[in-house]
Prior knowledge:
Number of helices: 4
Strand content: 15-25%
Largest sheet: 4 strands, parallel
Order of helices and strands: EHEHEHEH
CATH architecture: 3-Layer(aba) Sandwich
Structural class: alpha/beta
Shape: globular
Oligomer: single chain
Helix content: 40-55%
Strand order of the largest sheet: 2-1-3-4
Amino acid sequence: MLILAVCGNGVGSSAMVKAKIKKFLTEHNIEATVDSGSLGDTGQNLHNADLIFCQQHLADQVKAKVKDASKVHPIKNLLSEAEFGSIILDYNNQK
């Protein structure tokens, strides 16, 4: 599974989300690759990612760049595990 955290500049918020997701994956014994970056720098990862998390205000821009908009999940609170945890668990259980 490839999980991508996307933000506007690719520095702060996506890196924080990436760290929170990695911690969540470790705690739940889920194997996945997690990457982060800006909307402009994520390139092929946008198309290869299974799950994409971004801030709400970027959701439409991210969805416009991917073939399957259902894998894009806007986040309100970047530091809340509740924002992404159930989505990751649901996806992992469907595999």
